[in-house]
Structure formats: C-alpha cells, structure tokens
Design brief:
The complex is a heterodimer of chains A (about 260) and B (about 210).
Chain A lengths: L5 H7 L1 H13 L4 H28 L2 H22 L6 H27 L7 H32 L1 H9 L4 H4 L1 H21 L7 H8 L4 H30 L13
Chain B lengths: L2 E10 L2 E2 L3 E5 L4 E4 L6 H9 L6 E6 L2 E2 L5 H7 E4 L10 H11 L7 H10 L15 H13 L5 E5 L7 H18 L2 E5 L3 H4 L4 E6 L2 E5 L1
Classes of the chains: A mainly alpha (about 260), B alpha/beta (about 210).
Amino acid sequence: MSDIDLIRLIIAYSLILMLYLFMKIRRIQQDKLLIVASFRMTIQLVLAGYLLRFIFQMHNTWLTLGIILLMVTFAVLNVRKLAQKRLTSSMVKSIVVSLSTGTLLVLVFFLLAVVNPPSLFDPRYWIPLAGMIIGNAMTGISIGLKTLLDNVESNKDQIQTSLHLGAQPQEAIRSIVNKSFEAAILPTLNSMLGMGIIFLPGMMSGQIIAGSSPITAIRYQIGIMLGISGSVSLSIFLFSITIWKSFFNAKKQFTP
Amino acid sequence: MEELFLCNSISFLDILHPSDLIISTSKVTSITGPSGSGKSTLLYFLNGTKSPSSGDIFYKGHNILNIDIVLHRRKVLLVEQKPVLFPGSVQDNLIIGCEIQKKAIPSKQQLQQYLDEFKLHVALDGPMSSLSGGESQRICIIRCLLLEPEVLLLDEPTASLDEVTANHVIEYIIDMHHQNSMKLIYSSHSKKLSSIADEHIDIQQKKILRLS
C-alpha cells in the first residue's frame, strides 16, 4: 500500500479550507465549529493511531479488555449526553445493561465463531471490530432512547388511560417501546440496503486500498454487517425489555 | 351502612383529612368542590393510579397497596375528565378496554345498542377525529361500562357534556347501578348534577366534608 506522506496529507486540508471560505463568504454560522471539528478530528486520530500502535505492540489481553470496556463506558456517556434530557438512574441502568451486554456478547461470538483470528486475543482484530460494533449499538440506543422519550411525552394521556382501563404497565407502554425499537434498528437496515451500490463501506474500502482482494474484503464486510445488526438488535432488545420500568413506580403508577 | 372505600387519614396537596372518610356501598356518591380543590386526585386515589402522600385507602376492607393493583383498577374503573382516544375507529376505541383486559369482544349489535342508548349517532367504523368532545366523552364512558366494573368513577362528566346529556348519562348509569349494583362515584362542580347523588363529599378550603 502506498503511504500518504505528510505534505500530501496537509494538501488534503485544502478541502476544509474551501469549506471555511465558503462559510465566510455566505456568512454561515458554523465556521467556528468547522475549525474545532477539524482540529479535534486530527488530534484524536493522531492519538488513536499512536495508542493503537502501542496496544498492538503490547499484545496484552488485559490491556485489550480494558480498552474495550473503556469504549463501552464512553458509549454509555455519549448516549447520556445525546439524550439532551436528564435521565433517571433507572434509565441509565437500562442503558448500561443493554449496551454492554448487547455489544460484548456479540463481539465475543463474532470473533470466536466467525473471524477466528490466528492468535485468539490479537488486539488487531478485537479493537477495531469492537469499535464498529459498539459505535453502531450506541447510535441505535441513542435513537431508540430519543424516540422513546419523545413518544412517551406525546402519548402521556394514552398511557395513563391504558392504566385506568386495567393494563399492566408494560402493556400500557408496549406500542411506544416497539416504535422506538423500529426507529433504532432502521438506520442499520437502511445501510444494509444501500451497501455496495450507493457506497462502499469504510472498512471494505480500507482493506481494498491496503491490498486485500475485494473478495476477502466483502467477506469481512458481510460478516461485520451481520455482527453490527446483531449487536444493535440485541442491545435494543435488552433496552426495550428493561426501559419500561423507568416510567412506572412500584405501585404500577405512571411517573413520566 | 356498609363501607366500600375507607380513606384512612389521608393527606395530599395541602389537604389533610385526619379522620376516616367512608364511601358506602349502596349509594351514588358525588364529590363536589371548586376546580383545583383535589376532586380528581381523590378519584385517582380510589383506583390506585395515584397515592396520597400519607394515609391508606381501603377497598372492601383491604388496603389497595396490598392487593394486585391492576386487578383493583379493573374493578374500579375511572373515566377521566378529558376524553382520551386511541388511534383507530369508534369501534376500536369502544373495545380497547376488552382487549386490554383480554375479555370477550362485544358484538356489533351490543355496541350499537350502547351508542343508541347514549344518543350517539356515529358509525362504528367511522374515524374518531370527526367526533365532538361530548361524543368522545360518551365513547369513553361506554368503553368502561362494557367492562362491567364494580365501581365506576366519573371525573367531571359535565366538563365535556352539556347539562342535559350529562344528566341523561348519569341517570342511565344510576339505572345500571340499581340493576347490576354497580357503584357510581362522580365529581362535579355543577350543583344540579350533584343533587342526583344520595351521598355527598365536599372539598372546601382544604377540608373534606362528608355530607349525607
């Protein structure tokens, strides 16, 4: 694979410069964010690059495990931040349980049963795959949570009335939880629909540029897509069977 | 006089009722008081969808917190002041309670009978969106009557119904009360409507008064 040398990488920033100038001319507000975003992207990736090189050289199982747990923690914090509302401790508990169980179980299954790396705990496989699986599950839970909170807010009366009519709490909120499940899983399904035609996924492009045969690359890509759908659906499933409790108290009263 | 509900030194909002408040089995009970006085809240306590900040509610001698609260709500049904509708047709809205409680779905004839009885000239398969507030309110009342509760709680039936219709509805339900011994408790700020009841609870200046 041909390496991109530093000068050529700097040339690539001219594209950001172009966007910046366009924003300035049209007086579009987000010019500051553009600068911050490009700067952060650069710093974060450089750090990630060196960190990954260090982790790969160490080849230490505990270190790998620690990094994966750290990724899950950041994912949970991110979901909390993206919710833009104050979450109750019961909601946070549901997010932690669903996100960690859903991603870790699928990750272990996927690596052992599907990828089967030559050296079992090789961080070169675990870390990038964990990143993709956790990242997608995080987006799924985020969308699911947002849809759920919005729909509970706009369907308060129906939930309360269902209780008046003698519904169990989980029945009273079921259709709303199901809607949020759909909203959460839809982006993953949509990306599967367009894959290979509308766009080539980043991982597959990367492998092809790095010299892998496209046939090897698609095998990985199909595998990872199945892994991602698996972890998104398992996380969202766990989320939907635990989150309803957050909206009711022990007396089965609705406490939105 | 047999007691149906016993509210044991309950307090809520700024209201404190230090003694026992009894609602009897055989009578029709009205709860009166100015708006915001806590009439609705008291009704919500009776079916256990809300709880007082202190004190206990007993139904037929059992503390409702110690029995299966969902089963209790199925016996003591509450019709809210503001009609709450579900997506779907008039029929869907009538039978949703039966679906929730997994009871036999009433036949179209039965539903039609109720519509006629309540002077509702609407099509069973018509959309709910075309109904007025008063019509929707009557749909919500029928929805609960179909479930044959032991107690029916009506929160401010006059809020969405005109006085003539409200009177008609209450009288019809009182008739059912005589036939099936279904207990009726309703809140109202209309003096005229509350005069139909034979047991009165009045909330005035943060005090609950029981007037028989």
